[in-house]
UniProtKB/TrEMBL annotation, chain A:
Membrane topology recorded in Swiss-Prot or TrEMBL: Multi-pass membrane protein
Subcellular localization(s) per the UniProt record: Cell inner membrane; Cell membrane
Record-level GO BP terms: transmembrane transport
Key words, A-Z: Cell inner membrane, Cell membrane, Membrane, Transmembrane, Transmembrane helix, Transport
Taxonomic lineage: Bacteria, Pseudomonadati, Pseudomonadota, Alphaproteobacteria, Hyphomicrobiales
The name this protein goes by in its record: ABC transporter permease subunit
Keyword ATP-binding: no
Automatic annotation (TrEMBL), chain B:
One Gene Ontology cellular component annotation held by this UniProt entry: outer membrane-bounded periplasmic space
Positions with a binding annotation for Fe cation: 38, 86, 222-223
Signal sequence residues: 1-25
Organism field: Endobacterium cereale
Family membership: Belongs to the bacterial solute-binding protein 1 family.
Highest taxon of the lineage: Bacteria
Protein's name in the database: Extracellular solute-binding protein
Alphabetical list of Gene3D superfamilies matching this protein: Periplasmic binding protein-like II
Keyword field: Iron, Metal-binding, Signal
MF-aspect GO terms: metal ion binding
Keyword Cell inner membrane: no
Keyword Glycoprotein appears in the UniProt entry: no
InterPro entries given in the database record: Ferric-bd
């Protein structure tokens, strides 16, 4: 009796699900993807509308050439340096017997809690005349190397030491083992991390504006500030988008098609640590130096301004208002981003077919657009065709969803994948509608992933300046906006409390990031 | 299933309509200002105005030309009621598109003719003077430029700074254009491009002079006084050189206020401009920390400032300042 019920019920449930959740979930996912691709579509539309002649005139001029040189040099110098530093640090903290490895690993992540423009603020507090490419590279290195350290360290943890042992047993020196066995296995995380750092370099505004280093993004913001939403800004955005695509293409080529996985039974054992011998203590110089640049400089400058400013800079009414507005905007943005990521996350886990993967990749592509381009597009679209949405919370939320959706997607995917599909089927067999079955099982059990996704999205929103400034509803003032306004008027002391608050609220989310990367590695 | 769909649609419609509301609901007795003036100054004004009249002010902060172009694009649908700038060219741009509501005659009468455009479509609310802020440890009075035009000469190569992307500097170039014509302006800009160092923002340029990075900077006067009133750490090495003698470098720039035709709160907006140019609004300029000049009839400026009447500024028609031509000339000179 029992068996006949389940025999009938499960196929029935399966049939209902096929026509049910997956089709309308797909429809929703596609709709969201179309919204996400809006900025890209806008840039193409703007180029066509401008006409080839004007477009050419606006693009082929000396200023654009200078910006291109700056931007390309910045990316080409900073990304390899970041990769080098990240690999060295990850190796030391994961695979050697350097004293205090756990602590150093923490210190390698913590710079992420400091917004990039606060890094810049800290450096010019110390060296006021700092400017140009060299300064841009140095500060970017301090601000962004953790984006590479995280995946590389995780990859080190997952490496199967058996391969290295075999290579060594075949007579390779330790250095050759590293070069020929370890490095190739790190390639995926190196490429992914480098792409992330590269895209951040292209999109960053505050860091470079503060040290008078012009990139496409700073030039677009400058154009926006003097012409609002003019053709010249649109054409600069086009070049910037092309740069992003070039970076993505480069990553695809460098990543290659080879994959590394352990075949056969059993699991990889935990890799042993390499004894550094008398270099054990000297090795700490590298993480210590990194911590000085990426943590001590911000800490020192902030403390100095806080002391210099005294009690007068804690204007609690203004700070409180900015804080509450920031938290509300983070909450709305976080919830909406997770909700928007839910359909596609469910689809790629439960129905990993071609069309769903294409939809998923649309989100990644859309989020690689710099904030300034997303904001420019949304301003232009809302002011022309969707006027009721102009300068509303809805528009800025959409911008955040576009920019940060992958953060929520990654977290959700992992936790949905851990929920057995049988639970959905069981719920359906007990008579729940497909939507309810989904709600009662997978969605509920994926809550930790949703929470993590929300936290990571909020971290992004908390430190977002460019798009927020362009899209914020009238009267809004976030911590980042207030910080920027005050430091632009060289009121560095009054800006310090806002920077401190951003760091304080970012720290727990950075901790979460670290925790998550360890959990994925299973150690 | 049906229930959940209805529920979902209902909930999303509700959420959507909630989002579609601007952050601050529009109360009947409230105005929205597009503010390109210094945030601190407009906030002081807004708070004092609310105290006097009960009218709530919502401020959106930005820069002169950004808002001018934004207002033009928004056209009929602009959420702004009042536009406040640091300089006149942005006002001239909006006025050129016919988007300003004429200012009430009583309000116009509160400000002398030289501080407002002849057509009365907007009004001067404050003023600022061009200065050459110089490093006292490097320059003495006899080595200072006698005219702003000297700064384009080869002997000033690598010695001075400016913030060309700002509306402030563009207004100065606009005055030069109006006073001396396109040819002189063009060659001056070429000389400037060869000689100057670009900074982002007047206060940053001033700070660089104070730190010894360059010898002088062409900025407005109040950055110096504002810093002196605080700690002086970015201005203690500086001297201010006023060009005077109706030199283009003695240009006094008028900060404007205007009411948009599209405003749905015209009465309150008129009340704001009347208050702003009247005694209470101008008093904020005298007693506050902005150090901008008051322009109201009989209104006194801050005691620390060189009196406006002593500056011997050239006569410039604010409504004729042409920013489009200025940016074209600056682009041609390779500054942008």
């Amino acid at each position: 009796m029992t068996s006949s019920v389940s025999d009938n019920a499960i196929p029935m449930a399966r049939r209902r699900r096929r026509s049910g959740p997956s089709s309308w979930t797909f429809a929703i996912a596609v709709t969201i993807a179309l919204f996400a691709l809006l900025p890209l579509g806008f840039v193409i539309w703007a180029t066509v509308a401008t006409g080839p002649e004007t477009a050419f005139k606006l693009i082929a001029r000396p200023r654009v050439g200078a910006l291109l040189v700056n931007t390309v040099a910045l990316v080409l110098i900073t990304v390899p340096l970041c990769a080098l530093l990240a690999v060295a640090l990850a190796f030391l903290t994961e695979r050697t017997d350097m004293p205090g490895r756990r602590l150093w690993a923490w210190l390698c992540i913590t710079p992420l809690a400091v917004p990039a423009f606060v890094h810049s603020y800290a450096w010019i507090g110390l060296w006021p005349g700092l400017n140009g490419l060299g300064a841009g590279v140095a500060i970017s290195l301090a601000a962004y190397f953790p984006f590479l350290y995280l995946p590389v360290a995780a990859a080190f943890r997952l490496l199967d030491p058996a391969l290295e042992d075999q290579a060594a047993s075949l007579g390779l020196s330790p250095l050759a083992v590293f070069r020929r066995v370890v490095l190739p296995q790190l390639r995926l995380s190196l490429c992914g991390g480098s792409l992330l750092v590269g895209l951040h370099l292209l999109a960053e505004y505050g860091l470079y504006a503060m040290i008078r280093f012009d990139t496409f993004t700073t030039a677009i913001v400058e154009q926006f500030q003097s012409t609002y939403n003019g053709v010249a800004a649109h054409m600069l955005a086009l070049v910037l988008v092309v740069c992003c695509f070039a970076l993505i293409g480069l990553e695809v080529v460098l990543r290659g098609r080879s994959r590394y996985a352990r075949l056969g039974s059993g699991v990889a054992r935990v890799a042993g640590v390499m004894p550094l011998g008398r270099w054990r203590h000297a090795a700490m110089a590298l993480p210590a130096l990194t911590a000085v640049f990426a943590l001590c400089i911000p800490a020192y400058t902030l403390t100095r301004w806080l002391v210099a400013g005294g009690a007068a800079i804690w204007r609690m009414d203004e700070i409180g208002l900015a804080l509450s507005q920031t938290l509300i905007i983070c909450l709305i943005g976080g919830v909406c981003t997770v909700l928007a990521a839910l359909p596609v996350a469910w689809l790629v886990v439960r129905r990993p077919d071609r069309k769903n993967r294409i939809v998923e990749s649309c989100y990644y592509l859309a989020s690689s657009m710099p904030g300034v381009v997303v904001a420019l597009a949304l301003v232009a679209v809302t002011v022309r065709v969707a006027l009721p949405l102009y300068q509303t919370v809805a528009t800025i939320t959409l911008a955040y969803v576009i920019m940060f959706l992958p953060r929520a997607l990654v977290s959700l995917r992992t936790s949905i994948a851990q929920v057995p599909v049988e639970l959905e089927q069981a719920a359906a067999s007990l008579g729940r509608s497909p939507a309810r079955a989904l709600m009662a099982t997978t969605v509920r059990l994926a809550a930790p992933g949703a929470a993590a996704g929300m936290a990571l999205t909020s971290l992004g929103i908390l430190n977002e300046l460019t798009a927020t400034q362009m899209l914020a509803p009238n009267g809004t003032r976030t911590l980042a906006m207030a910080f920027w306004a005050l430091s632009s008027e060289i009121d560095y002391a009054a800006a310090a409390p806002y920077a401190v608050l951003m760091v304080v609220f970012s720290l727990p989310m950075t901790w979460l990031l670290h925790h998550q990367s360890r959990k994925i590695a299973g150690r | 299933m049906k229930n959940s769909v209805v529920l979902a649609v209902g909930a999303s419609a509700l959420a959507f309509s909630a989002f579609a509301l601007p952050a601050h609901a529009q109360v009947a007795d409230s105005i929205t200002i597009y503010n390109a003036q210094h945030e601190g100054l407009t906030k002081e004004w807004a708070e004092a105005f609310k105290e006097d009249t009960g009218i709530v002010v919502t401020i959106r902060n930005g820069s002169d030309m950004e808002f001018a172009n934004q207002i033009v694009q928004e056209g009929e649908n602009s959420p702004a009621d009042v536009f406040l700038t640091e300089n006149s060219p942005a006002m001239a741009l909006v006025d050129g598109k016919g988007l300003f509501e004429p200012v009430a005659a009583d309000t116009l009468a509160q400000v002398p003719e030289q501080f407002r455009p002849a057509n009365g479509h907007w009004i001067g609310v404050a003023a600022r003077s061009t200065v050459f802020a110089y490093d006292k440890t490097k320059l003495t009075a006899d080595k200072l430029p006698t005219s702003m035009l000297d700064l384009a000469k080869p002997e000033w190569k690598g010695r001075w700074a400016a913030s060309p992307s700002g509306a402030d500097f563009q207004a100065i170039v606009g005055a030069l254009l109006q006073l001396k014509g396109a040819d002189v302006t063009e060659s001056w800009l070429q000389g400037m491009q060869a000689n100057y160092t670009a900074y982002k923002g007047n206060s940053i340029a001033m700070k660089a002079v104070n730190a010894g990075e360059v010898e002088g900077a062409l900025i407005y006067h109040y950055y110096y006084f504002g810093d002196q009133a605080k700690t002086g750490e970015n201005s203690n090495n500086l001297g201010l050189h006023y060009f005077k003698g109706q030199d283009p470098g003695a240009f006094v720039s008028i900060s404007g206020g205007g009411i948009l035709k599209s405003s749905k709160h015209k009465e309150q907006a008129q009340a704001f401009l009347e208050w702003l140019t009247g005694e209470s609004g101008q008093r904020v300029l005298r007693d506050g920390t902005s150090f901008e000049y008051a322009v109201g009839k009989g209104a006194a400026s801050n005691k620390a400032l060189v009196p406006l009447a002593d500056l011997d500024a050239p006569k410039v028609e604010p409504s004729m300042l042409n920013n489009a031509q200025v940016t074209d000339l600056m682009t041609e000179a390779g500054i942008f």
